[in-house]
Every structure is written in structure tokens, then in C-alpha cells.
Amino acid sequence: MSINAxxxxxxxxxxxxxxxxxxxxxxxxxxxxxxxxxxxxEGLAAAEKGQEEMELAAKNAANVLKEAKQQSADIVxxxxxxxxxIVEESKGTAKTEGERLLVAAQAQIEQEMQNxxxxxxxxxxxxALKAAGQILQQEIxxxxxxxxxxxxxxxxxxx
Amino acid sequence: MATExxxxxxxTGYIVHHLTPLSVGEGFWALHLDTLFFSAVLxxxxxxxxxxxxxxxxxxxxxxxxxxxxxxxxxxxxxVKDSFHGKSELIAPLALTxxxxxxxxxxxxxxxxxxxxxxxxxxGMEYMRVVPSTDLNATFALSxxxxxxxxxxxxxxxxxxxxxxxxxxxxxxxxxxxxxxxxKLVEEIAKPISLALRLFGxxxxxxxxxxxxxxxxxxxxPLLGFPWAVFHILIITLQAFIFMVLTVVYLxxxxxxx
Lengths: 159, 258
What we know:
Number of strands of chain B: 2
Shape of chain A: rod-shaped
Helix content of chain A: over 70%
Number of domains of chain A: 1
Number of helices of chain B: 8
Largest interface: A-B, 32 and 49 residues
Largest sheet of chain B: 2 strands, antiparallel
Distance between the termini of chain B: 58 Å
Oligomer: heterodimer
Strand content of chain A: under 5%
Radius of gyration of chain A: 60 Å
Number of helices of chain A: 2
Strand order of the largest sheet of chain B: 1-2
Strand content of chain B: under 5%
């Protein structure tokens, strides 16, 4: 029970233990703890920031999508309008072309009719001359009665 | 063992035998070998385990032992931060050392009272007292070291004059100088004495009760021994905690300038 030199021995042991703890045990452990704490805090902050950024991105995406939708609707409208225009235009063109073709055809018909008439006139006049010749035989001199023949020919042409 | 000892020397003899340290030398220069041995072994155990964790300490995911050690470190650090507001490289490691070392001392109390003395007896050692905190030398060694630190920091922070002034001029002013000094001396000296005696008293009494339970018939022993041991788990932790916290509080008082 008495106090004796054990006290001194214990004090020496205690001093050594405290010194060792202070030098080799406490600093690395508390350092690791503090560093981990700050890392966790950083991680949490980063996560929060990431979430905010994500929300912002989602908002942006929604905006972009809305805009794109609007744009596509515009484009569709424009295309429809343009298509209508093209249809109208081609309708117009076709009509004009048709008319033009019609006119050309009519002109050609007319031309050919004239040609035919001319040909017929000539043939008829030749035929008439031939017939008249056969009837009159040599009574009519082509040179003498040139005037008369052309007059008859003209009259045939007018008929 | 219990019955043999009981038969040979009587109940008193058994108790006295268990509470007598293994010592060499005479008078003041006697050494309690059991106290020195067990506290050194326990100190080595503490240093070995914590040093192992400190060496493998990583900022990433900690291993189980590191997590355990970190838990204790954070607990001690929190206690120190709560009561001590200055900056000191020494106080937190000091508190940790006291907490763990005293806890391990006290933990020896949970070994059945006859096991280690029995083994020692077979090895020819007549006496063996395994709980270092039941030795006044051990508890006073701690508290006197702490007291030395209190005086050291008081003088370091406040200066010799400041400390002398605090001893003589508070709490009643310079006109009551001798009375103040008397009060202050009692206050200061009470610190190490109360620290040491509180720990010693609690553990000595606890050990005594274990010894008394060991004297009872075997069929009653577990009935009393088990609850007392469970209760003692609380006591040994609490006493280590109290010693640590009071040390930190006393040292923070030494750091404060009035």
C-alpha cells in the first residue's frame, strides 16, 4: 500500500508512452481523419454542384427541344406552303403550255389545211385543164390562153 | 484455489494475499514488480496496436482496426476540443494515452481473480496483484505527472509572476493574501490527490468485491460475479474517461489567464 520507487518507474513508463503517442501515433491518425473529413466535404459539395448542373442542363435541354420543335413546325409549314406554291405554279405552267400547244396545233392544222387546199386547187386546176384540154383537144393554146387559165385557176382557189 | 487458500489462511488471509503486491527491495526503494510489469505490458499493447493502425492509416476507406482506432481518436479529440480551447501538441495525445492506458489497467480487473495469481504461483511467485490501478503508486504516478504538467503550463502561460499572483491574489484580492494562498494550495494539491485516489478507490473496491465473491460457494459465484463484472465494464471505462477528462480540464485551467 505504501508509496515507493514503483511510482518513479511508473512515471518513466508514462512519460515514454506519452512521448511515443505524441510523436508517432496521434499525428498520422488525426491527419488521416482530418484529411478524410475534408475529402468527404469536398465530395458532398461536388455532388451538390453536379446536381445543380444537371438541373440546369435538363432545363437547357427542355428549352432546346422546345425550340427545335418550333423550328421543325416552321419548316413543315414553310414546306407545305412551298409545295402548294409549286403545285399552283405547275398548274399554271401546264395550263399555259396546254394553251400554247393547242394554239400551235391549231396553227398547224390551219397550215396543213391551207397546204391541202393549195394542193387540191392545183390538182383540181390541173384536172380541169386536162379535162378542158381533152374536151377542146388542141383548140386551146397554152400560150394564147394563159390569162384565161390563171383566171380560172384563181377562181378555183377562191372557192 | 479459493477453497484451498480459504482453508489454509482463512478469508482474511485470502484477501490480504490477493492484495499484496509482488515486491522486491525494502522501504522507499521497494519495487512492485507486478504493477511495473503489467502496466508496461499493457502500455506496449496500446502502443503496438495504435502504432500499427497509425502506420497503415489511409485517407481512403479505413480497415477495421483503423476505423476502431479512429473512433477512439475522434472521441478523445472531441473531448479535448470541448474542454480545451488553446492549441497544444501535447494535450490530445496525453489524453489518449491516459484514457487507453488506464482503461487497460482497469480491464485487468475483469480477469478472474485467481487465474493470473494462480499461474504466477505455479511459477513460484508468491504474490501477484494484476490490476495496476489498485496500486497507489501507479495512480499517483499518473496524477503527479499531470500535476507537474499543470504547474509547468501555469508558469509557461502566465509567467512566474502571473502564477504567483493567481496563487496569492485570488479569489479575495491582495488583502487576504495568506488566506488566498492557503485556499489555492489546497485547490491545486487536491487535484492530483483526488485524481489518484478516485481511480485507486474505485478499482481497489471493485477488485475487493471480486475477491469477496470468489470466497462464496461456487454455485452463488456466477450469480453475483456476472452482474458485478457487467457493471464493472461500465466502471472501468468510466474511470478511465473521468481521469482523462479531468486531466484535460485541469490543463485547460492552467492555460487560462484570469
